[in-house]
Write a structure and sequence with these properties.
Layout: H1 2-28, E1 37-42, E2 48-54, E3 63-67, H2 85-91, E4 95-100, H3 120-139, E5 144-149, H4 151-163, E6 168-174, H5 190-197, H6 199-213, H7 236-241, H8 248-260, E7 264-265, E8 270-271, H9 272-275, E9 283-288, H10 296-305, E10 311-316, H11 337-350, H12 392-400, H13 406-422, H14 438-445, H15 448-452, H16 454-469, H17 472-475
Parallel strand pairs: 3-4, 3-5, 5-6, 6-9, 9-10
Antiparallel strand pairs: 1-2, 2-4, 7-8
Helix pairs in contact: 1-6, 2-11, 3-13, 5-6, 12-14
Length: 476
């Protein structure tokens, strides 16, 4: 009995001691502020989100939206200070805007709404459209570049399918799960159960592990990182603060996608996995060879199935001539990240200037066509899923239907904003029919290739008429 009491007392002291240690770290290590400006943006549903701006070396640089991953924040694609990906971009003349979604430290809900409210759909349908519209207004550029790590890349894959590429000049994804295809994830364990009940305590306890494991370079099952591939100039206090709070519902939605291998969004109407081959925006996919969330084989298969020929794949491994075998987290904070990752992104952006971005749907094959083969075999060997979940006609019908919920109304406003912005573009003037939903707008835009073929058809009668008129001078 005395032994049991002693063990219980020791465990209680350890728990209390660790809790006190975590509390002290939170007090003495404040959030760093390497950004130049903070911009508050109000979403369609009344939330206030924050954009953290890192100005370009020169005025007027093209804007880049930096989207962080799960359990991360605005520092995800910025730190180490002076050496992170954002600094590679600003040094090259790009204007970087790091977003923090609702539910984060900087997010503020409307009156009467708890800060823990919000979903993965809310990021997609409210936060990101509001952020992109705001950046376009502030910078005067018609489009932005998207750089997303992990969940930030997943959101791009869904955003492109809902809103199209009207507002995007290019996209870069780093370690973005393809719906967790090829990844085995256990059902809810202790850590997720703790997060479900006490999310803030969960994050603080995980943060407190970092100062202990970093000097030992110990890998952790819940932290997919190559501990030997973390920039030594990154202060531990900054690494500690790079772990951010997340809405509990979002974490469990991502977990369900991983466990069930069923990636649907927009209230379940959008099958993101089925639409992946039809990405419109020029896409640069960056993978780590040791990333458990995106196995290289699955990532390469996804890449080869993309119809859009404007794409690039980079797998970071020693075998491919890079400094390390990259994992998931260290894709944005390795010692060579500024050159191997940041430099590659700069090259991609320079190859896709906003002023020279082609029209939406140019040279894109129909959705029903099979995806191009990976290695030159017959196309019939590799066939895409059945396109998107709804046909163009079905999307138009849904768009014309009366608004039945707040979510439908929310999708109307981003579409309306895009339409208003599009009126300023010469290329958008031929559009005359009103679009009520982003999805419907996208379907309408895709009709452009068909419209471009009409002039070619009209030339033939003109040629015949010219030929028939040639003999007339002989008769006179």
């Amino acid at each position: 009995m005395n032994l049991v009491v002693t063990i219980a007392a020791v465990l209680a002291c350890l728990v209390l001691g660790y809790g006190l240690y975590a509390f002290i770290l939170k007090l003495i290590w404040p959030m760093p502020a390497p950004h130049d400006e903070e911009h508050r943006v109000t979403t369609e549903d009344g939330w206030t989100i924050t954009l953290f701006r890192h100005k370009a070396a020169k005025e007027g640089g093209e804007p880049v939206l930096l989207c962080h991953g799960a359990f991360a924040n605005r520092l995800n694609l910025v730190m180490p200070e002076g050496r992170g990906i954002a600094y590679s971009l600003t040094a090259a003349g790009y204007d970087c805007w790091a977003i923090e979604y609702r539910g984060s430290d900087s997010g503020q809900p409307p009156a009467g709404t708890p800060k823990t409210a919000g979903s993965f759909d809310d990021y997609l349908l409210y936060d990101l459209p509001a952020a992109i519209d705001y950046i376009r207004e502030q910078t005067g550029h018609e489009k932005v570049h998207w750089v997303g790590h992990s969940m930030g890349g997943m959101l791009f894959y869904a955003f492109d399918q809902v809103f199209g590429s009207d507002a995007l000049a290019s996209a870069t994804t780093l370690g973005a799960p393809i719906g967790f295809k090829g990844t085995r994830v256990r059902r809810e364990g202790f850590l997720l159960a703790l997060h479900k009940r006490m999310p803030w305590l969960f994050v603080d306890l995980v943060r407190a592990v970092i100062p202990i494991i970093r000097p030992l370079r110990l890998p952790l099952p819940f932290l997919p990182v190559n501990p030997h591939n973390i920039d030594p100039t990154l202060p531990t206090r900054h690494l500690y603060r790079m772990i951010g709070y997340m809405n509990n519902r979002v974490i469990h939605e991502l977990h369900d996608i991983a466990v069930n291998q069923d990636w649907k969004m927009d209230g379940g109407e959008l099958d993101v996995t089925a639409g992946l081959p039809h990405v419109e925006t020029p896409l640069f996919v960056i993978l780590g060879v040791k990333d458990p969330f995106v196995p290289v084989a699955e990532g390469e298969d996804f890449y080869h199935r993309i119809f859009n020929p404007d794409k690039r794949l980079l797998v970071l491994s020693k075998a491919n001539g890079y400094s390390a075998d990259y994992n998931h987290v260290d894709l944005s904070m390795s010692p060579s990240c500024r050159f191997e990752v940041g430099g590659a992104i700069v090259e991609w952006l320079e190859a896709h200037p906003i002023a020279a971005t082609p029209g939406v749907g140019d040279e894109m094959p129909p959705k029903d066509a099979p995806a191009p083969p990976a290695t030159g075999e017959e196309a019939a060997i590799m066939v895409t899923p059945g396109g998107r979940t709804r046909s163009a006609a079905a999307r138009k019908t849904a768009a014309d239907a009366p608004v039945a919920s707040k979510k439908s109304a929310a999708k109307k406003k981003p579409a309306a904003k895009k339409k208003a912005a599009a009126k300023k573009k010469p290329a958008a003037t031929p559009k005359t029919t009103p679009k009520k939903k982003p999805a419907a707008k996208k379907a309408a835009v895709k009709k452009k290739p068909a419209a471009n073929t009409k002039p070619a058809a009209k030339k033939k009668p003109a040629a015949k008429k010219k030929a028939e008129s040639a003999p007339k001078p002989e008769k006179t």
